[in-house]
């Protein structure tokens, strides 16, 4: 049986999936292997190959059954899979700077390799889960993690742009001054911009801007006693899910920021669906529903024809990158007559 592989390469772990020609995923949950990316490209490439062998063996196949590999990584990187010359937080070893990871995986495995950044791969999976493989729909996905990733899918394909920066949704500026409850806040993104989506809607934003803003308003709050904003930021989601007033307020601000962003996307693309994923939404359904309602509440009034646009939580969020990478690989396999 011929299959394509999805390889989601992160800084610490690699997640794999396999997809056959009938669009069935042969691996349902996480299938992880250590990345060892801090040890440089050559060590990491060996890990990718070893982990892929493990993945195919887990379903009774061998590497010979894999006809195309779909790879995704965090950025910044070109649309062809060349990592930034300035390096990456996830790939700190100096040899990663300017490294052509797509071509290196292709040489290492002897297989054709497609490439997406991890945000676009997640967006492609979310789109596929809603609309299937053959469709002409448009969707916008925002993936909330340490930063804010995502992607735009049009006519069943990822919008990559001239240099691969298409779908860098986290750095789209929003009219954040219209969000109630953050008067006087000047949210700055690590990219240097003030008031982009990531500056308000990300784990980094919680530690860098939102906690410093809200903790003085809640002087007896337990998170103010940690003495470590980064550590405290990681506790906000759990407390928000439990109903903590300050942490709920922080997540309301993030939801309203998403609402403003999605309003811009509705008026740019008129999409069939808006999708939200990432660690921020790895919660119980009750909290997810509350968060989606707050996104809707944060959107300016829509035209009557646009008011019914659906907002979804991305399914299988922890495997979204690998699944999206596999879907991209399946496209190439079909176009090339390999499957």
Task: Provide an overview of this structure.
This protein is α/β, with parallel strands linked by helices and 339 residues long. The protein folds into 2 domains: 3-125 and 318-335, ATPase, nucleotide binding domain (Nucleotidyltransferase, domain 5); 138-271 and 279-313, ATPase, nucleotide binding domain (Nucleotidyltransferase, domain 5). 35% of the residues lie in helices and 16% in strands. The chain has helices at residues 41-57, 101-109, 118-131, 203-214, 229-241, 245-269, 285-298, 320-335; strands spanning 3-9, 13-20, 32-34, 66-73, 113-117, 138-144, 148-154, 157-158, 273-277, 311-313. Strands 3-2-1-4-5 form a 5-stranded mixed sheet. Strands 8-7-6-9-10 form a 5-stranded mixed sheet, with helices on both faces. β4 (66-73), α2 (101-109) and β5 (113-117) form a beta-alpha-beta unit. It is globular, with a radius of gyration of 20 Å. The mean pLDDT is 93.
């Amino acid at each position: 049986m011929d299959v394509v592989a999805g390889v989601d390469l992160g800084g610490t772990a690699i997640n794999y999936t396999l997809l056959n020609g009938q669009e069935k995923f042969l691996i349902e949950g996480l299938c992880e292997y250590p990345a060892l990316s801090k040890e440089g490209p050559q060590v990491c490439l060996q890990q990718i190959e070893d982990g892929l062998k493990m993945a195919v063996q887990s379903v009774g196949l061998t590497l010979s059954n894999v006809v195309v590999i779909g790879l995704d990584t965090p950025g910044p990187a070109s649309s062809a899979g060349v990592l930034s010359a300035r390096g990456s937080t996830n790939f700190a070893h100096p040899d990663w700077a300017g490294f052509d990871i797509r071509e290196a995986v292709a040489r290492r495995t002897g297989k054709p390799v497609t490439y997406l950044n991890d945000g676009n791969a997640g967006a492609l999976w979310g789109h596929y889960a809603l609309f299937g493989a053959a469709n002409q729909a448009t969707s916008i996905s925002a993936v909330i993690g340490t930063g804010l990733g995502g992607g735009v899918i049009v006519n069943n394909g990822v919008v990559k742009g001239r240099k691969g920066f298409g779908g860098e949704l986290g750095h789209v500026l929003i009219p954040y001054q219209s969000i109630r409850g953050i008067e006087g806040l000047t949210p700055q993104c690590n990219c240097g911009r003030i008031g982009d989506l990531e500056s308000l809607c990300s784990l980094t934003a919680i530690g860098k801007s939102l906690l410093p803003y809200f903790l003085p308003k809640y002087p007896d709050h337990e998170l103010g006693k940690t003495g470590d904003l980064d550590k405290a930021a990681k506790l906000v989601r759990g407390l928000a899910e439990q109903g903590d007033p300050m942490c709920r307020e922080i997540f309301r601000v993030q939801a309203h920021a998403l609402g403003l962003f999605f309003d811009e996307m509705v008026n740019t693309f008129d999409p069939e669906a808006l999708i939200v994923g990432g660690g921020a939404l790895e919660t119980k359904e009750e909290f997810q529903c509350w968060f989606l309602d707050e996104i809707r509440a944060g959107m300016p009034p829509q035209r009557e024809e646009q008011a019914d646009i659906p907002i979804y939580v991305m399914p299988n969020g922890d495997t979204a990158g690998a699944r999206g990478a596999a879907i991209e690989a399946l496209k190439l396999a079909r176009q090339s007559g390999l499957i």
